[in-house]
């Protein structure tokens, strides 16, 4: 489904895409970008500063890991893992493990290059990769559906509340989203381009990087496997032995690097076993990380109600010929079915990787509605996207600027929207 008169890269689509990228980049700049600058006070005043200004618990742990790297270098990583295990054994609940190496290591490299402290490095890495995700998503959709789709989806993603939230804090989930999006894009390209070693190598390296970023990489990998199997009937492209091999090789390489960083197979397995088992005893996880299978749907409805409603409507209308929509729908459903069954392990932060697929499906539904308006389709489509973007930005301001939200759990979302009120 296309927008009339916008099937080629015309001026309106390019201008819209440029504006979306520029505005999205501005919103993702770290909070301290304007704190020491007096040269652009008017622009600084327009930047919505997050209401939560403390150092969160997870942020403090990431900072401690980066500080340890700064003190001992990359060679000290097995010692950092050993120290984690000793501390974790004594705690009643789980704390995040240092096996999320790529985020920690990138922040360490950022410190080495720019000389900033560990927490600043972590925040700037999170913001930078959130910006990269925006640009990667724009390119991904352009390759899939063309410039008009890219402009519209990028505009919606530019103001996505959870994307903006992740860019403003030293948390791994926005960083993880970049690698998940890269894996999805390169997988799509390999389905469409047969046996090109450049696409295959990039795809395998992206999978390896995903494994080095966070243990949630299993969910993305599982989604990819489901897409590989579903391709037999849904015909997204061509499945080759080389693509299957890359799908297996990438994660294996990531695990090998993790074994090396942990100091061996046994220390790595013990680290993950401690992290998972202690999570079932963590009071905060028990209080906030549980719920019914539709927990994520309810949370997304609270944060991005218009997007959620459009996606729900669109899922039941996707035609066999609409390959990109089918591709994203299968990925969301397959990963959702696993993630919604994790006891004490549900948090909307983990759903950050669905933001692009959700907005592709949402825009597809917008077009399904506006395409019936004949010559007014273009005006109605642009107007609808403008309304959605305004509503999304308002949600971000309500929940993360006016309300000091940090963790994306249901109670906090309800209080931010004044559905629940403190006496």
Could you explain how this protein is built, in words?
The structure is a single chain. By secondary structure, the chain is mainly α. Helices cover 71% and strands 0% of the residues. It is built from 20 helices and no strands. Helix 1 (11-28) packs antiparallel against helix 6 (118-145), helix 4 packs parallel to helix 13 and helix 9 packs antiparallel against helix 10. The longest helix has 28 residues, at 118-145.
Largest sheet: none
Number of helices: 20
Mean of pLDDT: 93
Approximately how much helix is present in the residues? over 70%
What is the alpha-carbon Rg in Å?
21 Å
| Strand residue percentage | under 5%
Intertermini distance: 50 Å
Global morphology: globular
Question: Which spans have pLDDT < 50 for at least 5 consecutive residues?
Answer: none
Number of strands: 0
Secondary-structure element pattern, one letter each: HHHHHHHHHHHHHHHHHHHH
Which structural category do the helix and sheet elements fall into?
A: mainly alpha
Descriptive key words:
about 425 residues, mainly alpha, single chain, 20 helices
Write the layout of secondary structure elements.
Layout: H1 11-28, H2 41-46, H3 57-72, H4 77-90, H5 101-114, H6 118-145, H7 147-158, H8 161-167, H9 172-192, H10 197-213, H11 217-234, H12 241-262, H13 265-279, H14 283-288, H15 295-303, H16 305-315, H17 323-339, H18 355-370, H19 377-401, H20 410-416
Helix pairs in contact: 1-6, 1-7, 3-5, 4-13, 5-6, 6-7, 6-8, 6-9, 7-18, 7-19, 8-19, 9-10, 10-12, 11-17, 12-13, 15-16, 16-18, 17-18, 18-19
